[in-house]
Protein: Thymidylate synthase
Organism: Dyadobacter luteus
Amino acid sequence: MQQYHDLLRHILQHGVKKTDRTGTGTISVFGYQMRFDLKDGFPLVTTKKVHTKSIIHELLWFLKGETNIAYLKENGVSIWDEWADENGDLGPVYGKQWRSWEGIDGKSVDQLEEVLKLLKNTPDSRRIMVSAWNPTELSKMKLQPCHALFQFYVAPPDEAAGETKGKLSCQLYQRSADVFLGVPFNIASYALLTMMIAQECDLDLGDFVWTGGDTHIYSNHLEQVDLQLSREPRALPILQINPDVKSIFDFKYEDFELKNYNPWPGIKAPVAV
Ligand SMILES: Nc1nc(=O)c2c([nH]1)NC[C@@H]1CN(c3ccc(C(=O)N[C@@H](CCC(=O)O)C(=O)O)cc3)CN21
Ligand SMILES: O=c1ccn([C@H]2C[C@H](O)[C@@H](COP(=O)(O)O)O2)c(=O)[nH]1
């Protein structure tokens, strides 16, 4: 995860001090890109222990189309607690927009089903996109989407090199990025989603490309960042997914196994609400 350390250093060197909605204050740059070849291993930060269980459950919760934190609470995941109302509701956030974006004619669109259809039928399409940024529903969301838009791309097999399958890549546009707390989660989550989709569509793995808009370190994460940068990145772990699961909507927590993850100890930091 040298790429992630490069990003932290880039913000410290080139960032500007900026106020923000939460009143915390940040150092921020506008526009940044990182690329992870998913064949190199699972892109999980190794210079602090990252709570993979929260990442997997959050992704399964998005895929169910859910927007109430009940499922997360049942599974011991508390990362969305601060934003939910007294009934646990977050409004029409990611799950709703991914699985049932409401159209003007009252019909809803399952954007993920559309993605799967395109990948299976017309993998050369340049329109394989999912948007969580639904301007008509932003005001009802407890937190507006940060990972707002993502696109898939299939590179044809290199037949001369003996390849038989296309390679699936994914690019995310994250409009706002809390680099210390949120970004390690976001990278791992989209890498995992890409692996699940590749399995369903019988594709090999390509790259995950992370593109950030307002890419910031909160002013109360600076000591944590210094500690993290003093640590040497270690080999990437492997994330194995149950090869028998043929639909991305059928995965359960037990279908994932993280191997060879030997991170440095966790680093606590307050989340800006
Ligand atoms: N300021 C802010 N940063 C975020 O990353 C963020 C939000 N707000 N709001 C919505 C979601 C919730 N996400 C979060 C929230 C908290 C942690 C967090 O506290 N992580 C700790 C503990 C992990 C755990 O308990 O599972 C960490 O050490 O990574 C991470 C992502 C990502 N998002
Ligand atoms: O998946 C996520 C969700 C949220 N964040 C961060 C980015 C910002 O620090 C805040 C959101 O505040 P806005 O004022 O709405 O931009 O949450 C993240 O990094 N990843």
